[in-house]
Amino acid sequence: MKKRIGVIGIVVTGREKVSEQINKILSKHADNIIGRMGIPSAEHGLSLISLIVEGTPDEIGAVTGQLGNLPGVTLKSALTSVEVEAD
């Protein structure tokens, strides 16, 4: 199956409670993450994370499903129609 390129936007409230779990999930799926940027927003009490990902729809769905089940985590993902060869 061909891999696709996509993005995941994550907003975290109560970072102190879930940051360790988020990092474990992201480390577990590191092979699918091309780039990651995290920005704290002290003004709003939020943490913002953007991911550029490469994977099959099932692989990306696994990442978003695990993250989305964490308390205080909301996210949106989008896969482009761009396909790349799987390793």
Note the main attributes of this structure:
87 residues; four-stranded antiparallel β-sheet; FeFe-hyd_TM1266; 4 strands; alpha+beta; Putative iron-only hydrogenase system regulator; Alpha-Beta Plaits
Summarize the structure.
With 87 residues, the chain is α+β, with helices and mostly antiparallel strands. Helix content is 30%, strand content 48%. The protein has one domain: Alpha-Beta Plaits (2-Layer Sandwich).
How would you describe what is shown here?
InterPro entries: Acetolactate_synth/TF_NikR_C, ACT-like_dom_sf, FeFe-hyd_TM1266. This is Putative iron-only hydrogenase system regulator. It comes from Halanaerobium salsuginis. The protein is 30% helix and 48% strand. Strands 2-3-1-4 form a 4-stranded antiparallel β-sheet, with helices on one face. With 87 residues, it is α+β, with helices and mostly antiparallel strands. It has one domain (3-84): ACT-like. Chain A, domain 2 (Alpha-Beta Plaits). The radius of gyration is 13 Å and the shape is elongated.
